[in-house]
Design brief:
This protein has two domains: about 50 residues; about 180 residues, Sortase, Chain: A (Beta Barrel), CATH 2.40.260. It has three helices and nine strands; from the N terminus they run H-E-E-E-H-E-E-E-E-H-E-E. The N and C termini lie far apart (about 75 Å). About 5% of the residues have low confidence.
Length: about 240
């Protein structure tokens, strides 16, 4: 083989190597978002409804004619629950969040300072963050949970992207918070796009239990904030 053909071969090999390395990197970066989007669209097309299984409360057998958790704050225990194809078993009942509509299931990191980038970025590698000063679940006030959707494509894996599909929520959708092994059901009543410097949704205080969810909008940018609010209801 002449030096010319060897050179052509080496150049082509390097080109293919760079191309496939870039393709793999692209899939690695955007894979979680593509998976979330495709999964949601497929569930919607097939009319699949994902739900958190009913569990026994206070050691009593559930009434087949009634949801076993009739009031907010019911105790839960999923240790003996077998997951079915369309069921969601919460990753944490000590402090976790489940949004059935978008198949979001994540741990909540408590007491995170939203003004400290270093602190909240560390928290977002583990789950979604509860803003410092938030009211505990089930109590009157503002429970404020936030996450990036993410801030940049290369951080999609490193920083939690669980709120990427938050934009799909509409009034009437259910959001479930688990706290100290108790369940709290909230129903969405409001969804707005806010400017990054608008902190009113964080500082708002309410006479009833309100859950506020916040992420980036459009997804993958820091231009605006998508804010979803929900009120506590009986399950």
């Amino acid at each position: 083989m002449s030096k010319y053909f060897k050179l052509i071969f080496i150049i082509r090999f390097i080109g293919y190597l760079v191309f496939f390395a870039g393709l793999i990197g692209f899939i690695f970066m955007l894979g979680p978002l593509v998976q979330a989007e495709a999964g949601y669209r497929l569930d919607k097309a097939l009319r699949v409804k994902r739900t958190v299984p009913n569990v026994v409360i206070s050691g009593q057998e559930p009434d087949p004619g009634q949801p076993p958790q009739e009031s907010a704050g019911g105790p839960v225990n999923f240790s003996n629950v077998s997951a079915s194809e369309n069921s969601i078993i919460p990753v944490s009942t000590e402090y976790g969040l489940v949004i059935e509509k978008i198949n979001a299931n994540v741990k909540v990191i408590a007491g995170v300072n939203p003004a400290s980038e270093r602190e909240y970025l560390t928290a977002l590698q583990q789950g979604v963050a509860e803003a410092l000063g938030s009211t505990p679940p089930g109590q009157p006030g503002n429970l404020y949970l936030f996450s990036h959707s993410t801030d940049a494509p290369w951080n999609i894996v490193r920083f939690n992207a669980v709120f990427y599909l938050l934009r799909e929520l509409v009034p009437g959708d259910r959001v479930i918070v688990f706290y100290k092994n108790r369940r709290y059901d909230y129903v969405v009543f409001d969804k707005v796009i806010a400017k990054p410097d608008d902190i009113s949704y964080l500082t708002n205080r309410y006479d009833s239990p309100v859950l506020t969810l916040q992420t980036c909008d459009p997804p993958g940018t820091l231009l605006n904030r998508l804010v979803v609010r929900a009120k506590l209801v009986n399950t």
